[in-house]
Design brief:
31% of the residues lie in helices and 21% in strands. The chain has a 4-stranded parallel beta sheet, with helices on one face. Helix 1 links the parallel strand 1 and strand 2. By secondary structure, it is an alpha/beta fold.
Length: 131
Amino acid sequence: MTTTKLILFVCVENSNRSQMAEAFARIHGADQVEAFSAGSRPSGRVNPKAIEAMRELGYDLTTHTSKGLDPFNGREVEVAVTMGCGDECPLVVAKQRVDWKIPDPRDMTPEQFRAVRDLIEAKVKELLQSL
């Protein structure tokens, strides 16, 4: 019997990097993992640049919302991935913690934003292969 593994992607606002990472984990690991994202200080909205960047790949990020970490405090996850924003999420119980040090694309040009998106996709694929 195979069980799905829970992955949590975390950044500060949960509006760009962690949202795209959650989306890529759902795209590439749908039968392998349950993917979620959250932020330590959620902005309350997903960045329109992230929505557009994912739309270009055929993924509708408008269905996502910017959320906080409260639902995950004390909940065990297989992997907690932070995006390099200094968040450690100490209340999340993670078997493995990873910090990817992904630059915040919020103020980047569309081309730079796509490069960050593509970097996140590559990192998610690597993570899924390691599980």
